[in-house]
Design a protein that fits this description.
Helices cover 26% and strands 21% of the residues. It has 94 residues and is of the alpha+beta class. The protein has one domain. It has a two-stranded antiparallel ribbon with strand order 1-2. A two-stranded antiparallel sheet has the order 3-4. The chain is elongated. The two termini are 30 Å apart. 0% of the residues are buried. The mean pLDDT is 84.
Length: 94
């Protein structure tokens, strides 16, 4: 995904790169153009009633929570992540 022109964090003020002596400029508030979180569920029940349905859950997070999650999930190995997700899924709704 290409980088965005707008910052991830909604800044209230900026320090412009201009002539010496210029101060902070307030930015006008504007609503977000995209949601901060999207959750998609894909339920594959093609095997019918005799087999459990395959459920895939995809969550997209943006903003501060997305940055926090990126930091948290970038350190462990893939095997550690899989073990943690499996442990977390025990007793979950799905």
């Amino acid at each position: 995904m290409p980088p965005l022109d707008e910052p991830v964090i909604p800044y209230r003020s900026v320090l412009p790169l201009s002539e010496p002596g210029s101060g902070l400029e307030r930015l006008a508030w504007k609503p977000a153009t995209r949601p901060d979180e999207i959750t998609l569920f894909e339920i594959d029940a093609r095997a019918g009633f005799v087999a459990p349905a395959r459920i895939t859950n995809t969550t997209i997070k943006r903003g501060i929570e997305g940055l926090q999650q990126e930091v948290q999930l970038s350190a462990p190995t893939p095997a550690q992540l899989l073990a943690a997700f499996r442990q977390n899924a025990i007793g979950d709704t799905w």
